[in-house]
Amino acid sequence: MDIDIFKDILVPVIGGLGIFMLGLEFMSNGIQSLSVNRMRRFLAQAAGTPLKGVFAGTLITGVIQSSTAMTVMVVGLVNAGVVGLRPAISVIMGANIGTTLGNGLIALPLGPLGLIFAGFFSLVYCFAKSEKVRSIALACMGFALIFYGLNLMTGGLRPLRNMPEVMELLSTLQADSYFNLIKCVLIAALVTAMIHSSSATIGIVMGLGAAGILDWTTAVAFSLGADLGTTITSWIASLNLSRNAKRAAYAHISFNIIGVCITVPLFFVSIEVLRWALQFFGGDPSVPVMVDGRETFPLVPVAVGLYSTVFNIFNTALLFPFVGVFERVLSRIGRTSEEDVEDFSTPRYLDRKLADDFALAVPAVQKETARHLQAGALFLDIARGAKNAPSDPGEHYLATDILSRDIRSYTAALMKEDLPLEQLDLIASLIEEADFTAALTESLHQVARRVRRETFSERARMIVDKALDKLDASLRDILPDFGIAQPRMPDGHVSYPDVEELRASTLALGPNAGAAERGTILALLGSIERAEILIRRIDNERRSVNRQAIVARASARRQTQSPPIADGDFSPVPAE
Description:
Blueprint: H1 5-46, H2 50-64, H3 67-79, H4 85-106, H5 111-127, H6 131-157, H7 164-170, H8 178-195, H9 198-210, H10 216-229, H11 231-237, H12 243-263, H13 267-277, E1 289-291, E2 294-296, H14 299-319, H15 323-331, H16 358-384, H17 393-413, H18 421-452, H19 458-475, H20 499-507, H21 515-544, H22 547-561
Antiparallel strand pairs: 1-2
GO molecular function: sodium:phosphate symporter activity
Subcellular location: Cell membrane
Protein name: Na/Pi cotransporter family protein
């Protein structure tokens, strides 16, 4: 039978591959638009310990169906300081398990129905008015296109079996020895690195295996290489990010390399175990099944999906006890003194164990709010270009925003119905102060951004410096111990121009400064004016309730109500 290479092979294979990858993209985008922000918040909260990190990584990747997107998300969260290096390593382990759910779904024999479902959900997507419905339809359309594309690829690859030249070339890709096994793994890793999708590589391999082009053992070997090659995307995503973000990417790479190195010597033993396990799924994957007079191998996709799943679970279980070792080793890579700068995204004083003790929880909130305020004041150092200041104002603001949310959440949890009115009033005051502090930090961030992104002339720079000095002086009212230089002259002999005077000086610059420069200074003065209003609000809020007296009464009440301590017991103390 004559084979038209263009019509019978190139069109269905290239078209099927494109539809397959488009389906992956649609499904990932649809699911992520529905839940990625929720997943990001869940990850930031859930990845507190390595075990929780594995669970969070598995769950989220199973939902968004992209270990690549998940790993890039983790690298970004590590870069922002939301997730530490140690839990990030465990999240990446979980991501490798979660992505295997997609491989298992791809193996389902739903190809012929894919086009029908894709057409139906594309109509829903086109005519739906709700953004949520459109996102669901997009995800379902992508899911259906995956199967249709895989079905097209399988049909297009099947004629290759009748071409001796192709079969002779592919015969060199036989995982029948350790040397050939390593060659297959490296080729699959290279392909995956180029297309940035292990799912796409595994889909291609499943198509080749189902068509009988690759024997099932070689197809399984290619799935190992796909797990290895997918690490390249996280490495690329980390190139311009923080050192910890790079270390998270290195963890992904080293984790998969170690797993493959351990699995390769056990490959042929594991293949026999897999052959035995496949008896429960319908028989031997090497035995063809006749469909419309053609030989197919429907169990090969099942074998590939099952092996990939077991490999990642085995790899995680094997390396999970060594998460601490990974962290210690990776933490030494590229370490400098800059990493000793305080991480403001992580609360220092908020301890959930104290939440039920009003007398201990309130001082903890006060200390953390003061720390948040101190972090906000660092924006003035950023604006001045101080050497000890955080290098990126956006990254520092993200850290303070995370801390602000933690403070509000912790403080709100203190508000219990059985508390006396004065204690409820104090908690409400703390919540308001935390809110004013967050708003002040945002204004200080705007000050730093505006100063950093504009080059000022000499006269304009003098106005900017006066404005920053004025804000410094205002901050001392609520943050007296902040490390800013005190005036050389005695207190009371130094006066700072008000905002109106600085605004008039800016307008008087005339041709000595450009319009953009003057506009930046005027916007800067607006931010400073808002910041000073918030400083006064914070100061007034602190005076609105006699906090010290209320806490003292609560402490005395706690001591009188506490049961006597038995011999050998220890008095509870706040956590460090």
